[in-house]
Amino acid sequence: MSDAGVAMTFWDHLTELRSRLIKASVAVLIGAVVAFIFNEELLDFLLVPFCEARPDNCELAFLRPTEAFSVVMRISLFGGMVLASPLLIYQLWRFVSPALTKQERRYVIPASMILATLFFAGLALGYWSLQRGLGFLFDFGGGNLEPVITADAYVNFAVRFVLAFGIAFEFPVFMFAAAATGAVSSTRLRGGRRWAVVIILVSAAFLTPSGDPLTLMLLSLPLYLMYEITILLIRWILKK
Predict the structure, then answer these.
(1) Counted domains in the chain
(2) Residue 222 maps to a domain
(3) pTM here?
(4) Tens of pLDDT along 71-87?
(5) pLDDT tens digits for 189-214?
(6) Within a domain: residue 216?
(7) What DSSP line would sit under 27-45, residue for residue?
(8) Dist. CA 121–CA 208, nearest whole Å
């Protein structure tokens, strides 16, 4: 259904999807241009955890003539996506809003704000955890192995690492939305705590690129805490 209460056809949905994708793409492009202007500062920011994990030598190498260019482009795209993320989330909600009731549409903007806040909170925790994860991994080399990290490898690892936390932190909103539609209840979620722990651990292991137990715990513990908080919110706000 559209905002006017008129049923949308398949072509109407495609037109709406195209409109949302264009707006999202423009937002990412503008953000990427801004990030490109400050790409050196962004790289320095990403290097802080690496330098803290290797204070004796925090220089990155590149092995191909095109590697420096690809690193700058990846940083710019990552920065653009982060800067545009509130608008991307809002466009996603606006696309699905025609399928919602008039009362449910009132929560589009608040839900978008909460999703954006959780995403940035996840990014912040991921950035804080990055140095701990790197230090844990570097210690496995002992004194016999000297890490030679390329810029491309590190930026790819750091971006995936931080994004994994940001994406994982979105799940409480979707869990709350599922409860709002009647798909789950607080009683059912409380009864499924054991399965929740397993799913959170498996998801955290899949999302984080390092795979080390320290990073697994740094991501899993906040996720489980948010799981419990969401159960309380479902019970108090939705009365389910």
Answers:
(1) 1
(2) no
(3) 0.78
(4) 899 999 999 999 998 88
(5) 888 888 888 888 888 877 776 666 77
(6) no
(7) HHHHHHHHHHHTHHHHHHH
(8) 16
